[in-house]
Amino acid sequence: MARDVQITFDCADPAGLAAFWAEALGYQLQGPPGNFESWQQALDAMGVPPENRNDASAVVDPEGARPRLFFQRVPEPKRVKNRVHLDVRAAPGLTGDERMAALEAEAERLAAYGATRLSRHEPAPPLGAGHLVMADPEGNEFCLD
User: Could you tell me the pTM of the whole model?
Assistant: First the structure.
């Protein structure tokens, strides 16, 4: 039996991190529930106090094919390297210098949204195609691959 998967990020700023990952993956912010025209209207109707309005956020694939990403505020900061990370497939079908140039271009684009480049791993055929290790605005590692 198939199961849906949601990927959850613990973070300090759910709205900010959701905006970053929406840009990185071509996702969109999840719309408000029911017949509400905005999240502001929905949160007002639910009686959510202003200090709790950035406790959570989510982004979704506009095509509905890829998993939902959920962001929840937690009090503690990130302390160590992720044991699980996302690989953003930014250069499918490309090899060698062309692949690395595409990855570098994507790294520059994401840096404009707050990502940090951590390292570059050169192609090492036959198994290593080369990739870049990045961190999102809150330090969660991911790869451009």
Answer: 0.93
